[in-house]
Amino acid sequence: MTNGVLLTNLLVYPTLKYFVLPKRGQKITQRTYAKLGAVCVAFLAVAVALDIGTQTPNYFRQLQVSRDATRSQIKTAFKSASRLHHPDKSSDPNAADNFMALQRAYEAILDENSRKVYDRFGPEFYEDPHRDQRLSDTSSMAFYMLPFYAIMLFLLLIMSSAGNGSAARPWNMLLLGGVFFIELFMRFDDWDLPLTGFVFPYTTKHEKIVVLHAMVPLVAQMATAYASLVYIDWPAVRHAQQMTLLMQIAEQMDQAPWGKTEEGSSTKSAEQSGLTRAQRAKVDRHKLQRVGQIAEEQQAKKGSSLSVGSLLFGLYLVVQIYSMLFK
């Protein structure tokens, strides 16, 4: 997950801002959308390649057999690999370790039930001595899946909590929900992502899910960056126009002359009428200023929430980098 997040924060936002998206107020053409799509696809492809390239070889890759290989194909592949890595026939000092790794891979994927567990949940879950009990326990499996989505839900809400980036919140929630249902079907059913078995024959379902997890913050950051750069908050624009108009009216009321006295009325009543109008204009100005102060305070709160979100997201990156380097 770290590679995709780092790639996003370091490269995606500056690329979108300075090379793809137009300046604020300029029209977005079809060419702009084409450039945006090409850049996003390129970053996603690089992120997927980084995540797949840094994964340790799984049992299918060690034996060079596909995930849907038959028992005879697995036996043939194991015999061929054993001739190369057997300690009695290989001069490699690590031949014994390599041969034991081949045996573990062979035992894991030869049995159909064990192969499904390894393919869907990964090596750590497969090596758990209580895996069968966990598979039969619904609450245990829910706890196995939900932590990632709880953390990502919190981070996505923080990322889209302030500024124009909040316009991307529905899309980010839709993305997270879609990935959740895809993972649900991949882990507990025979369904797989279309064409991935042909393109990545040795990649397990668990590794594909790891890549999907890495793509969630990447795509969410793209959507948030795009929304923050091009989204126009029309209610805020109309509110600002109304505030400007009200301020102009208040200034005109303040500068208006006192009411003229009619014949037969006293000067005192005219002065009282003028004072009432001036006081009313002063009160109106005070109200408008107070509304402006409230708007500034709300904007400051949004900025502070964005700062808190950036801090938490940075802390999340530090934890991910530490786990990647020292696991």
Task: Summarize this structure briefly.
The protein has 327 residues and is mostly helical.
Q: What is the overall pLDDT average?
A: 75
- Sketch the topology as an H/E string, one letter per element: HHHHHHHHHHHHH
Sheet with the most strands?
A: none
Strand content: under 5%
Distance between the termini: 14 Å
Helix fraction, binned, reads over 70%
Return the structural class: mainly alpha
Give the total of beta strands: 0
**Tally of contiguous helical segments:** 13
Contiguous low-pLDDT stretches (5 residues minimum) are 258-275, 302-307
For the CA atoms, what is the radius of gyration? 32 Å
The dominant shape is elongated
Structure characterization notes:
With 327 residues, the protein is an all-alpha fold. Helices cover 78% and strands 0% of the residues. It has helices at 2-20, 30-53, 59-63, 71-85, 95-110, 112-126, 131-136, 138-159, 169-188, 196-199, 205-230, 234-255, 267-326. α1 runs parallel beside α11 (205-230), α4 packs antiparallel against α5 and α8 runs parallel beside α11. Mean pLDDT is 75; it is low at 258-275 and 302-307.
List the helices and strands and how they pair.
Elements: H1 2-20, H2 30-53, H3 59-63, H4 71-85, H5 95-110, H6 112-126, H7 131-136, H8 138-159, H9 169-188, H10 196-199, H11 205-230, H12 234-255, H13 267-326
How would you describe this structure in keywords?
mainly alpha, 0% strand, 327 residues
